[in-house]
Hints:
Chain B: Pfam families: Med18. In chain A, 28% of the residues lie in helices and 32% in strands.
Amino acid sequence: xxxxxxxxxxxxxxxxxxxxxxxxxxxxxxxxxxxxxxxxxxxxxxxxxxxxxxxxxxxxxxxxxxxxxxxxxxxxxxxxxxxxxxxxxxxxxxxxxxxxxxxxxxxxxxxxxxxxxxxxxxxxxxxxxxxxxxxxxxxxxxxxxxxxxxxxxxxxxxxxxxxxxxxxxxxxxxxxxxxxxxxxxxxxxxxxxxxxxxxxxxxxxxxxxxxxxxxxxxxxxxxxxxxxxxxxxxxxxxxx
Amino acid sequence: xxxxxxxxxxxxxxxxxxxxxxxxxxxxxxxxxxxxxxxxxxxxxxxxxxxxxxxxxxxxxxxxxxxxxxxxxxxxxxxxxxxxxxxxxxxxxxxxxxxxxxxxxxxxxxxxxxxxxxxxxxxxxxxxxxxxxxxxxxxxxxxxxxxxxxxxxxxxxxxxxxxxxxxxxxxxxxxxxxxxxxxxxxxxxxxxxxxxxxxxxxxxxxxxxxxxxxxxxxxxxxxx
Lengths: 240, 224
């Protein structure tokens, strides 16, 4: 990895899979101004909390976390045009600053059949440009754009991202992403994440996402993290 | 200065590195003569050539003209490609290359076709459903196999096209050769917005070196 993957950006399947992460920032930060080791991605648990961003940051810092930088997650909603509204549902397109060259798309099907997993994909950012060509079907709803931005902490094997969620400039809530980095098998990380949550956010223990509790040894991908963010944004939208 | 302007785009819009201008010419020859062309290309091109076998789906977004939209938008076509004979274990079946091709530019003077292309590499466990969710519908699909040569910036692709007789079934008994011909494409990709005339002339000159084996033409495929 260190020598650069030599893969050329577009064909880096690892990036597409979401398993090789910070490709861009690792290359960019080769000089080492950010002292974080090149790492593979882990398993995340994203929570929404009533506490303020400041109080959580103090809590993490007092617990021994070190600030390593900033992070941003954004989510745009594309709604179908009137003629297609019966056939297709809306599409949520997300970006995460930890995966700077990737676009995460989560579709909501019009039929909403619970047996069918919702269509989703990980792509490079060229997809955003293609999407703009499909404006005959899906158009961006600029008022529905959510942003979460804040501080990223390193905490031994954990990465903690604390951010404030805004929609069109108005504050909607606070999210915390806890990532356990040494594994990408969801149920292996399950206990460690529970312990962390118990220690810092005891009121959230019940909100464990299904993807982490599932007993299968499916590999976890970055899309699963972004899906958790999207669920939180959906809840915050309803809360108004 | 142009580049500096390009970088002032809002951060949510990706840089134009995924977007390029493609200069392209097409030609075809009967498959029994392809050996001669391969020998010629081996002499002209860079040392290695790569064989490929890919599955392409062409999907269209049909735009129904409505009273509310004044703009006369035409149908949008998106192509999806993946490696054929995919390896289930490595999930190569789920890795796709999505490509949007714009309408060719109306250039009478330019000796080659110029069109805008946007590429994206995607991974999805349910690509067909995802495509449907984008409002796209599959028009046709085919399998293409052949060889790719490069000569500096120029890419030469020899395609043998095969049709899929029933959709969704790709075993040997359902995939039949389309014709007894090999489709030849020579192309160059340039960054978006740069002057292309000089490269176009170089591409034309290269294509002429393949004469008399194959005649490369600026085929006006968009006229029906």
